[in-house]
Amino acid sequence: MNMYDYVIVGAGSAGCVLAARLSEDPEVRVALIEAGGPDTAQEIHVPAAFPQLFKSALDWDLDTDPEPGIGGRRAYLPRGRVFGGSSSINAMIYIRGNRADYDGWAAAGATGWSYDDVLPYFKRAEDNERGEDAHHGVGGPLTVSDGRSRHPLTSAFVRAAQQAGHKANDDFNGETQDGVGRYQLTQRDGLRCSAAVAYLHPALARPNLTVLPAARAQRVVIEGGRASGVEVERDGTTEVVRAEREVILSAGAYESPKLLMLSGIGPAAALSALGIGVVQDLPVGQGLQDHYMTLLNFRTDTESLIGAATAENAALLQGEGRGPLTSNIGEAGGFFRSRPELDAPDIQFHAAPVLFHQEGLGAPVGHGFSFGPCVLAPTSRGAVTLRSARPDAAPRIVHHYLTTAEDRGAIVAGIRTALDIAAQPAVADLVTVPFDVPASDSDGDLLAWARRSGQTLFHPTSTCAIGSVVDPELRVYGVRGLRVVDASVFPSVTRGNTNAPTIMAAEKAADLVRGAVR
Description:
Layout lengths: L2 E7 L3 H10 L7 E4 L8 H4 L16 E2 L12 E2 L21 H9 L7 H11 E3 L13 E5 L5 H12 L15 E4 L1 E2 L1 E2 L2 E2 L2 H9 L5 E4 L2 E9 L2 E9 L2 E13 L2 H11 L2 E2 L1 H6 L6 E2 L4 E3 L3 E2 L2 E5 L10 H10 L11 E5 L10 E6 L15 E8 L6 E4 L10 E3 L6 H18 L2 H4 L2 E6 L6 H11 L1 E2 L25 E3 L14 H16 L4
Parallel strand pairs: 1-2, 1-14, 2-11, 5-6, 14-27, 15-16
Antiparallel strand pairs: 3-4, 6-8, 7-20, 9-10, 12-13, 13-14, 17-23, 18-26, 19-22, 19-25, 20-21, 21-22, 23-24
């Protein structure tokens, strides 16, 4: 059968949620199209192994064009090409963002997306091992747990941050985001709990859900102003998977806009220049945002994660769900304000009990640890555009990292905060020699180092934003039967890791699709 009620493109964080929720109705036929395949690789499920997935067959392995704000460097952009999408290759950090993010969306016209509107969907998704309270839910598909590694090197970072005067915070998703502490993680019994594990796997046995792996979507078929299906290349042949009700794009902030543009939905002049017939003139691909991160790296004589892959630790993980292999690398962090007058944090820290350098691709060279800031509320905006009309061509991506004075000021302030933390006894006593740090604490050296050593924090958003490309119900303007549901619809990037907000958005979208908004 090639006809379904709903055709979803992308079995990532949002697509897994939608496939599971929509197929709860046995009368509804759902197709889920995924360019990758099943999430069977061991490195997916062993939390500490996720950097081994970078540039593998499970990674789209994208790059930016030369970025003007970081000296013309190209930034490496890992994205999951596998069931679970990037939730199968990420650091598993469960952060929802700040109330100010969602209230800001609503105030700008994203009706129904205020913090109070979205909190029930965060809670519906969640099964938090700490139990239920005003901010957290239990019984949802997504297991949220405290990290089980608790490495002494990340404990040292937390102590040093407190020695520097930053308050402790044991719940960044609770009443306040500010402070320093350990992250809660999307893990179950010490193993990764991706969107595939949480949502898709339990739904796979349903007869009304069809998953098409190794199937690359090429364009949305639009007939008479309505999305009627998706053209897919699979096993060397092209077919159209038909949708009676809706096509839903959940391919992520890079691929969803690419698919829209290949389908004739996007900036008219750019599409016409590539010979693509214009169906709807919309600013698709514009407004791209991401979190830009820098990490101070230090050598140490303390045992780090570099030697964690032992038979003994593997037995601990498999038999007891504990030990260093449960580490998500970025075990701890915090949220800070570069200026006291800000109404919400503009800097986020991540701390790892291992050297993490050269965009996570640097060779292991001995024991070390790393921590540093990202620009949490960037004012820079980039774009995703087409290189050609060929579906197999990677999109052209430019984020414009550090191209605004506000973003440069935030990263410099964040690095200075990191240096202050590094000078505290809890960290300083463990350092044998700096591995990758700024030349000095001058503004010029801090900014030059940020441009040279920084990287993405893997959080692209806002290329099909509510209010410009989709309406508050995530329907594409001017095309019937077509929605976008993933981080590309965020009007702006949330203050924190974006996986939890993406899952929330898909939970809410499932109700929007079913006409049962709570």
